[in-house]
Specification:
By secondary structure, the chain is of the alpha/beta class. It is built from four helices and nine strands. It has a four-stranded mixed sheet, with helices on one face. Strand 2 and strand 3 form a beta hairpin. The protein is globular. The two termini are 18 Å apart. The C terminus is likely disordered.
Length: 167
């Protein structure tokens, strides 16, 4: 039986979505984890000082901002949630619906497309202390429901790759 490989599916969906940022898919085979990373450069016109998640202080004119999500095999969670806007488990036996993968990518496209505007809003707020994006399950579920209602949600199961599936 030929099982659809989650790495190939996400790569194809992301490529077809034309994200306006750098992106990467990192498969941690030993940990049964897939990390989706979207990297944007944000302008810092006033050279303000910012501290990242690792307590590094920067006041560059351009800052790098990452949006990361973790997709992992259910029962194998070995990472800290604080590094990701969301972590999504995938059942080893049932996989994840293709439609859910599509909804994830569509939601990430909307989220990453809004970063520049949210960043400028953050810079203009005098009392804002932290810039971050959050995963809003209600927005994600709305996208998923629209796919279902328009008959574009496929329940075809997608699985983590086996050793022999990797090119």
């Amino acid at each position: 039986m030929n099982r659809a490989n989650i790495l190939n599916v996400f790569e194809q969906l992301i490529e077809e979505s034309y994200f306006h940022c750098e992106w990467a898919i990192e498969w941690q085979e030993r940990e049964n984890e897939i990390e989706l990373v979207f990297q944007m450069n944000l302008e810092n016109p006033n050279n303000l000082s910012f501290k990242d998640n690792y307590d590094n202080i920067s006041h560059q004119t351009e800052l790098v901002y990452n949006v990361k999500i973790m997709i992992y095999k259910d029962g194998y969670k070995r990472f800290s949630d604080k590094d990701y806007i969301v972590s999504i488990p995938v059942n080893s036996e049932r996989g994840i619906d293709y439609g859910k993968c599509l909804a994830i990518v569509k939601y990430l496209k909307n989220l990453t497309s809004s970063v520049d505007v949210k960043w400028l809003d953050f810079l203009s707020e005098t009392d804002a202390e932290e810039f971050s994006l959050e995963w809003k399950w209600s927005d994600f579920e709305a996208i998923q429901n629209r796919l279902i209602e328009s008959n574009r949600y496929s329940k075809t199961p997608i699985y983590f790759p086996h050793h022999e599936d990797i090119n």
